[in-house]
Amino acid sequence: MGHTYGPSKVVHTKIPFTLPAGLNDCHMEEALIFHDLYGHGISAILSAPDGPTKRIAVLCHGFLSGKNSTTNKTLTRLLNERGIATFRFDFFGQGDSDGPFEELTTTLAVHQAHAALDLVAARGYDRIGLVGSSFGGLVAILTAAQRRDIACLALKCPVVDFPEELRITFGLEELVRWKTTNTIPNMMGESDRVRLRYGFYEDCLKQIAYEPAEHITAPTLIVQGEQDECVPLHQSQQLHDRLGGVKRLNLLPGADHQFTRKEDFHQMTTSIGDWLVSHLTIRA
Fold first, then answer.
1. CB 3.0–4.6 Å: which of 8, 203, 235, 264 could bond 160 by disulfide?
2. What is the pLDDT of residues 238-262, one digit of tens each?
3. Of 212, 210, 207, 213, the residue nearest 245 (C-alpha)
4. Is the pTM of this model over 0.85?
């Protein structure tokens, strides 16, 4: 099962919420803080359907994103409607979690994903799906490779080799500037540079996910747009080849990294939702 990071003290707040018009069910969201191996507080939301369930999807957001991303909230709605709980959380230095973003590493994010999975397992969920978007996809792959309690995996345009993506995106001159200033260009398109230690890149060199993926036996879905401008398409193709279990690669023609077009976003979230429902359902 790999590493175990038993959750420490958890702070809870229950928040009832109503789904969008046309969906009359009222669900319960529980805001909580749990802790990783190093004692960092991690902000999370457990969203449960009306009836009892032991099925849950843990959602890992992307780089410079957060637990309340449009993808995470859409998947929460789709899965809660179909009797599956979700658990979404902010990685270190993002959203409402502890820590300055500049000290984030992939290794730390993997520790936090393990802590999230340990927490939901301790709460009695025994059919657990793991979902990762972009950077969260890298974290999900690395985490799933170390565990045997993941029933299925769903990856949205996953980063597999982050150093390669960063070299392509930034270029050599920007990598040199990163090393000397501990700042990177704002990948969300804003003008202000983002403080992030060069150690993030050095850590990423040790966290390339092709080889770990060979240890994953859980059924795995990969969804990526053929016009993804961030993650090279060959990363998903090579990842698919390396996975050992049941697997599917869905490439959406014309879709970009953010699945900006409404129809692309709908197809991406629907395919992930259907995959989770199918593989988290216990068949007689």
1. 235
2. 999 999 999 999 999 999 999 999 9
3. 213
4. yes
